[in-house]
Structures are given as C-alpha cells and as structure tokens.
Description:
The protein is mainly alpha-helical. The chain is 73% helix and 2% strand. It contains 9 helices and 2 strands; from the N terminus they run H-E-E-H-H-H-H-H-H-H-H. Helix 1 (7-19) packs antiparallel against helix 2, helix 4 (64-77) packs across helix 6 and helix 7 (126-152) packs antiparallel against helix 9. The radius of gyration is 22 Å and the shape is elongated.
Amino acid sequence: MSKPWSELEKQQLNELIIQNTTNNRINWHKIASILNNRSPVQCKLQYRNVLNKQREKVNVEWTEYQEVQLTVLTMMYGTKWNFIQQNYYPLMKPEQLQLKHHQINSMYVQYEEMCKNPDKYTVLNNKQIKILEYSLRRIDLIKKKLEFLAENKPGITTLDPLELQFYKMAITEEYVVQLLENEKTINKLLQQLKQ
C-alpha cells in the first residue's frame, strides 16, 4: 500500500500533467520519474480517481474575456475540444468548454434575433434583459480590444495566434459597423424598459 498523497504532491502532479501532455496523451513515466517516489501507475490512478473527479466538481466562473476567447478559439480550431482544453483551459474538462460554447451560441442566436427585429420586443422578460446586458458588455470588451490594437498598431509577427485571429476577424469594416449598430439597438431596447 502506498503512502497518501500530500497536497504538494497533488499540485505537482497537476502541473506535471499539463506540462507532459502531448496529442491528448499523458507521459506517466516521465511524470513518475520527476516525482521520484511514485510509480507511473500510482500517478495515473491518483489523477483518474481523485484529481480528475475534483476537476469535474469545480463550478467554473467564466470571465467575459474567456467567453470571447472561447468564441475566437472555436473560429480558429472548430470544435476540437480536447486541443482547446489542453492548450488554453487546462483546468477545465472538454465537456465544460462544449457546454459553455453551446450556451454562448444560444444566447447569440437570441441576441441576433432581438437586434434584427427590435420592434417585436416592446416587452422583455428577465432572460432577454440579461442577454442584452451581457451582449453590451461583450461589445464593450471587443471595442476596447479593437482600440488597443489600433493604438498599438502591432506588427503581425508580434501577435500570438489568438490575437491575430481576433484582429483578422474584427478589423473588417462590416464587422465593426454591425457591432456598433447592435450596440445602439440594445441600448434602445433597454432604454424602453426604463420608461
């Protein structure tokens, strides 16, 4: 019987898993050699039976930046959840990313509908109000990002792939025009509520 895992060992194991995962495969032998007093089987069992279950229980609080980032990543890589998880969200499970992507998309569909047909929405329910307020915050975040990119005029080589994709996506004139029109429409709808 092996000795119990200390909190420090659990932390080290988590970090080593992130560092030693390639093509969705974890190199247990390398991890065990770094930990010294643990075998590859012990490391694997600790991960599968304890750490991975703890990760599943974590209720992830997403920042708006992470949500925008996830949207851009799915534009770049499609729905390669394992790849996105390993490279950008190592403490989340691919299923969590997929669920968040689905939530963002369903909100986006409703947001688009409200922006295209604002006259249909003279009365808004709480969910619709939350979607509009959320959309306004996202628009503000994107505008700040565009302003930052415009002010700094980065050379293409200084941008990481995610920034580059965002720049290519957002710099088109029709995208910016649509963004600003949607912002006006949302403000108008929310203003009607206050009256």
